């Protein structure tokens, strides 16, 4: 049954939330490995799954046949699925072979899949046993990348949440920036934080195991990605304190993110304005160049990536669009309240999935742009609706000032393409 639950806040924060509980259309959580294996330079992600899992990773990552990436698949054969072989013993044997061949590995993640979860393979026990066997050279952890009931960005959340309990204890007063960002974007964020006066900053995930941050009661953390609900909870259980902030999408969002961090450290907002004046001006100019196709247009977000709320805030406040509906797989209050407070009132807020009901609302609204998953985009395009793949917003560098114009361009290009296809003049 659908019900409406109010969220107390300003802007859209007090709007009712339509709870959707029905048919799902989700992409596989294993997808997170594609960006995590590039970020964590001495980690390896071993998916315990089927040949379908292996084909998904190979095709999604675009790995050439002669390359040796930092991920692989331990294939569950028919004998494993039928219980005719001891899958635990086979997994341990494969891990031993992998680590013998790849001495550069310092962190090994055993990643559960739909098949391994269906047969109840105990990867947690396997990870503990293997970690004890290969310590201290390699730490073995496990998490679920299954797409049975989750959305694809939860793969990263599950991975980082699995790391938190084993992070070293520290009493150092440090800021922890949480969420995998492309290296060039992470460097920009760290430079901005240094310039406003925050010197002790660490990142989770770190590039290498030796750089893994500690956590403790003096750790303050700010999220760079809005889909890290489990990681947020795990860090708070370790005593770390969360800094609520709008997410750094666009000029306004980036400035608000930096000011939220600065305020926690007693740094005046004027200092942030001084440091960010030039990059913010560049971002605003870049956004304006792309927003000509967006001003006055309507956008409908189907639930997919968990980026929906901060992106809707960006499009409505910085690009002049009007949101018809903002759907998200989860509306995590502690994480999204700052963005909900800034999102102009008007759109329907929905949490969860009921694909048929949501598609009915899309068809009734006929928005100028629909942001949705891969599986829904082509059918909607065939019906004459313009779509944007939600997954592209995760794979593309879009955070902070220097990427703000590119972020706006990801939404303007589909409208420009539709105008060209319809024979209209492109702006």
Describe this structure in words.
With 427 residues, this protein is α/β, with parallel strands linked by helices. The protein has three domains: 4-25 and 282-421, 3-Layer(aba) Sandwich (Rossmann fold), CATH 3.40.50; 29-150, 3-Layer(aba) Sandwich (Rossmann fold), CATH 3.40.50; 174-275, Rossmann fold (3-Layer(aba) Sandwich), CATH 3.40.50. β9 (219-223), α9 and β10 (241-242) form a beta-alpha-beta unit. It has helices spanning 32-39, 51-61, 78-81, 87-101, 114-118, 123-134, 154-163, 183-195, 229-237, 250-264, 269-291, 308-318, 333-342, 355-365, 374-382, 392-395, 404-421; strands at 4-6, 16-21, 43-49, 71-75, 107-112, 139-144, 174-178, 201-204, 219-223, 241-242, 298-301, 322-328, 348-353, 369-372, 387-389. It contains 17 helices and 15 strands. The termini are far apart.
